[in-house]
Amino acid sequence: MKHPELTPKIANAVIAAAGSGTRTGFNKLFAPIGEDAVPLLAVTLQAFERCALIRNIIVVTRSERIADVDEIRKMYGITKITHILTGGDTRAESVQAGLHELAADTDIAVIHDGARPLVTSKLISSVVLDAVTHGAAIAAVPVTDTVKHVMNGSVRRTVPRRTLYCAQTPQAFEPGLLKAALHSALEKGLDLTDDAEAAEVLGFPVKITEGERTNIKVTYPEDLIFAEAFLERLAYER
């Protein structure tokens, strides 16, 4: 069903792919996954390539990886990529660099972690549609584990989880809002873990879009095993 408010809207994506892989011990973004040994970043980019609501893609990566990303673009037919940029020292600086290259007619800026290869085009679309309506939206899933507040290695209390969510990407915003929020956060020296936090600091409400449990961020080596298993299952079901 066509969303009437989206028809004149233009959504462009910034893929944050400037991580160094310190926790995995190698650069996970270029790790081969699945039966076809496709680079993890290529799988992520293919989801955005398939999403009809995304017009252009900007990839922000490390300077020494620009040629590798360009090779992925050519080899896997990622036609929507318009820029491959060098990122900053922090994630916020990298996203900010991507935002500076957005086309002037961009209505919605979509930010996504390159290390979340299992994102679906359906989820991307859902977040974009919510951002069109609310100005800012993020994918997130309810916390299911019991959460403990710990200090000095001991439990201080159990945190009620009924209002707790685990944030994911994609996260989508009106470009002016996100640019102002990130600029303010960087000026204040805030250590941001996601882009929505910058909007929250400004007091701007962020809509929660129901995320997907499979939309994991590959952070540790065992996460690659899960991602590969899920991709192989999808290939089998097709």
Describe the structure.
With 238 residues, the chain is of the alpha/beta class. It has a single domain (11-139, 167-232), classed as Spore Coat Polysaccharide Biosynthesis Protein SpsA, Chain A. Helices cover 34% and strands 26% of the residues. The protein has helices spanning 40-50, 66-75, 91-100, 121-134, 175-187, 195-201, 221-237, and strands at residues 11-17, 32-33, 38-39, 54-61, 81-86, 108-113, 136-142, 147-151, 154-159, 165-173, 207-210. The protein has a seven-stranded mixed sheet, sandwiched between helices. β4, α2 and β5 form a beta-alpha-beta unit. The protein is globular, with a radius of gyration of 18 Å.
Shape: globular
* Structural domain count: 1
- What is the CA-based Rg, rounded? 18 Å
Number of strands: 11
Summarize the structure.
With 238 residues, the protein is of the alpha/beta class.
Tell me the layout of helices and strands.
Blueprint: E1 11-17, E2 32-33, E3 38-39, H1 40-50, E4 54-61, H2 66-75, E5 81-86, H3 91-100, E6 108-113, H4 121-134, E7 136-142, E8 147-151, E9 154-159, E10 165-173, H5 175-187, H6 195-201, E11 207-210, H7 221-237
Parallel strand pairs: 1-4, 1-6, 4-5, 7-11
Antiparallel strand pairs: 2-3, 6-10, 7-10, 8-9
Helix pairs in contact: 3-5, 5-6
